[in-house]
Amino acid sequence: MKKIKDIEIELRNIKKGYGSQSVLNGVSLRIDNTSFISICGKSGSGKSTLMNILGLIEGYDAGEYLFNQQKIEPGKDYYLLRRNYIGFIYQSYNLIPEKTCYENIILPAMYAGMKQAEIDTYISSIVDRLEISHLLEKGTFALSGGEKQRVAIARSLILNPSLIVADEPTGNLDTHNRDAVMEILLHEHRNGRGIVLITHDEAVADYADEKIYLKDGKLSIC
Amino acid sequence: MLKEALSQIWNHRKTYLLLSITVLLTFTAIGVYMILDDSIIFNKYKHIMHESHYISTAGFDRSDEAKERLLKNKIEQMSDTHYYCTEQIQGISLYDHQFEDARINLEVQVIPNHIWAYYWSLGERAEMLDGEKSFSVGENEIIICKTLSDIMDQVGEKDYLDVAGKRLKVTGVMKDWSDTSAVMHDDGIDYCYVNAFVSEKTFRDWEKNNRTMIIYSPHQQEIEAYTRDLGLRYSSVYDEKEEMKKEIIRAIDSKMVITIMLILILGINMVGCYMNSLAKRKYEIAVKRALGASKMQIIKQFLLESLIVFLSDILLAFAISMAILGGVKIFYVWVMHDTWVIHITAYSLLIYAISASFMAVYLSCLFSILSTKVEVIQYIKAE
Ligand SMILES: Nc1ncnc2c1ncn2[C@@H]1O[C@H](COP(=O)(O)OP(=O)(O)O)[C@@H](O)[C@H]1O
Ligand SMILES: [Mg+2]
């Protein structure tokens, strides 16, 4: 297995709003490879917004964001950091429907310009671990929710991320699949990846070392 | 990236097919219009298309005999150059017959003694009734046109014709040249213009009036310069080539206008198509961006997709245009029993290529740049 790169993220007093609506109102958070954080909160409280800022998909309005000591400026596109450090998992999987599972999984590798030989060796260890080798040539539409999420997890792992950002990864799964997905994430965490996940589910939150609550645009420890 | 573009073209084949139909229709229309127009002009002028000769005329007054000799000497040294003189002769024996109330004006063409091909106009050779295209005429001989021959038949003359005091033996009859033998009406009197050929020697003794020398030569510029130096009237009245050039230029103008118009319509249509297509693919773009694709990579993919589709459409449109023109040709050859050549000028090809590549590049760039305007977050946020 390849070495996992060190990551250190620090959010200081981050604020974010849409129009006149203030969503995040001074959020501070420290994350590294050893973190396993769960975030909960009401629907519309800004959890996804926080995740997207954290994952460098969205900018912020005020505050300070340090990524491995590098200051992140809002509005700039940090696709290289995203590509090299962060793996995303979503509630609705966000697989590209017209592609096969294999094509979905290797998509980030394709954009990163990874060599085919390297992809092939790396992908086999991942799909074995997630027990989805038999699905590779299938289209995504025929899969069950649990299978889809495992394909999505494989995709998030293909570039060997230091941090996995998961927005309600088990929200659409039954308890059996939920536990399977969480075991996978726990395993990846033990391998040295930081994990931040959003969930409503107490049982899922229990996997985390740290449980945080988002309310009125601020974080508090549960 | 090429593989990704190709597979996405396949995945979105319905959208691309719709878009392709618009492009195909437009460029097939442009192609057919251009090739048809070019072919029509080409076929109209094809007898002179590859004609290297020009027809120049030099006009002499009664006193210009010395100049005529100088010009003849000059011309006779030029390669591939032929000439003849033409003059209206009064005193044809039939002139007084008032044939069917018509006055007959004889225009004699004085040809040098050697045989050569006589051209009515560029590429259009005089022919004897039996189809023979080269002929000679000796001293005191005359070759007459069909109309004159008919007139002689009707007044009962056959082998001899009296012209300006000379009795000439009729040695041949040639086909009429379309206009010259027509009957003209003027103040109730009909004038009939007829043609005949006599030799230099026969012509020598006649009184000379206003002759015109008609020169058939590839060295038009030299002849024009020399003729003007001598102070003679110069013109180039039969110059179909100039006419053809003008027509081609006019055709280029209208081609540009029509092409620009069609392309504008296509452009407006295409922007709509692309916006639709992008709306359907925002999710794909958002996911790809979240997974680490740079804006540049997204632009490249959409640019490639669009260019591939566009360029294949244009090639296909050109092929379809050619096929349609093939149909027109078959119509001419089989139904009209005529020869017809499919022709496209370099100008048209250039206009076609420029408009096609402009369209392809411009719209593809627009498409791909619009593709990066997609808000990533909106499409991937979970509730
Ligand atoms: N792109 C956006 N534009 C405008 N408003 C947004 C956008 N994304 C989220 N919001 C608003 O911000 C608030 C927080 O949204 P979100 O972070 O998705 O909440 P959560 O994930 O906790 O349910 C919601 O009120 C939502 O309507
Ligand atoms: Mg959310």
From TrEMBL, chain A:
Keywords: ATP-binding, Nucleotide-binding, Transport. SUPFAM superfamilies: P-loop containing nucleoside triphosphate hydrolases. InterPro entries: AAA+_ATPase, ABC_transporter-like_ATP-bd, ABC_transporter-like_CS, ABC_transpr_LolD-like, MacB-like_ATP-bd, P-loop_NTPase. GO terms for cellular component: plasma membrane. PROSITE patterns: ABC_TRANSPORTER_1, ABC_TRANSPORTER_2. Residues 9-221 form the ABC transporter domain. Gene3D superfamilies: P-loop containing nucleotide triphosphate hydrolases. One of its GO terms (molecular function) is ATP hydrolysis activity. This is ABC transporter. It comes from Agathobacter ruminis.
Automatic annotation (TrEMBL), chain B:
It is a multi-pass membrane protein. One of its GO terms (cellular component) is plasma membrane. Keywords: Cell membrane, Membrane, Transmembrane, Transmembrane helix. The keyword Iron does not apply. It is found in: Cell membrane. It comes from the Bacteria. InterPro entries: ABC3_permease_C (IPR003838), Macrolide_Exporter_MacB (IPR050250). The chain crosses the membrane at residues 16-36, 256-279, 302-334, 340-363. One of its GO terms (molecular function) is transmembrane transporter activity. Residues 256-369 form the ABC3 transporter permease C-terminal domain. Belongs to the ABC-4 integral membrane protein family. This is ABC3 transporter permease C-terminal domain-containing protein. It comes from Agathobacter ruminis.
